[in-house]
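Example 9 (inverse folding). The structure is encoded as follows.
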């Protein structure tokens, strides 16, 4: 094998290696061991939300004990969680959740649990436009231990993927929440102002409920930039031209 061919093989291997590494993606995780990373929970006369230093999955975690129609954990300042997602071909959102109590007038109940991407720069009569994905209904009976909830999606499509809903308008016949005219999935994921995990599913009404819920390890995974992979391909092309 001559020297040029050796370099060609080595460059090809490098390019493949880097491209494979790019597929792994970059994950940002809030563990609450070093602070809240912009995340906040319910606050006010209904109860408290605090970061507890132990008892998480593992270590520190955020815990809310609150009485209200529902609870919401939100972030509108951390640019890892609030960014233009439309340039990626895959995004994964995850959260660990432990339910100590969901109780309605002395009876243990379940409540929806979903992730929502909210855009407040809207022209609709609703407080925000959003797309949201429902994981499941959560309860102390089913989720008394730490449980990972996760969704992976392609943010580039205009139509809502299966399992996703829209908010910002309502269907005139069914009165179900829908995206306003002129808004679509990728459009909203490129301009949203806030990401939230909530029990207040759009289109539903809930009574005052006692919540004791813990969250940990909130993460977002996006593909690695492919700059180095493209560099490797460019080098391979240069060697081929020199042969």
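The amino acid assigned to each position is listed next.
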């Amino acid at each position: 094998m001559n020297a040029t061919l050796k370099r060609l093989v080595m460059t090809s291997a490098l390019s493949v290696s880097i491209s494979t590494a790019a597929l792994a993606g970059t994950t940002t995780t809030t563990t609450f061991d070093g602070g809240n990373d912009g995340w906040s929970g319910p606050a006010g006369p209904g109860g408290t939300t605090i970061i507890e230093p132990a008892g998480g999955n593992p270590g520190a975690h955020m815990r809310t004990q609150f009485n209200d129609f529902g609870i919401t954990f939100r972030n509108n300042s951390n640019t890892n969680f609030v960014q233009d997602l439309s340039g990626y071909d895959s995004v994964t959102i995850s959260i660990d959740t432990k339910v100590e109590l969901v109780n309605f007038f002395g009876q243990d109940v379940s409540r929806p649990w979903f992730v929502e991407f909210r855009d407040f720069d809207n022209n609709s009569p609703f407080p925000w436009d959003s797309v949201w994905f429902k994981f499941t209904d959560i309860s102390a009976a089913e989720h008394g231990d730490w449980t990972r909830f996760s969704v992976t999606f392609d943010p580039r499509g205009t139509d809502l993927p299966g399992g996703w809903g829209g908010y910002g308008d309502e269907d005139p016949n069914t009165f179900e929440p829908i995206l306003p005219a002129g808004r679509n999935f990728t459009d909203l994921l490129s301009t949203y102002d806030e990401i939230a995990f909530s029990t207040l599913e759009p289109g539903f009404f809930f009574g005052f409920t006692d919540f004791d819920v813990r969250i940990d390890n909130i993460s977002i995974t996006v593909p690695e930039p492919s700059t180095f992979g493209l560099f490797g391909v460019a080098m391979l092309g240069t060697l081929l031209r020199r042969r």
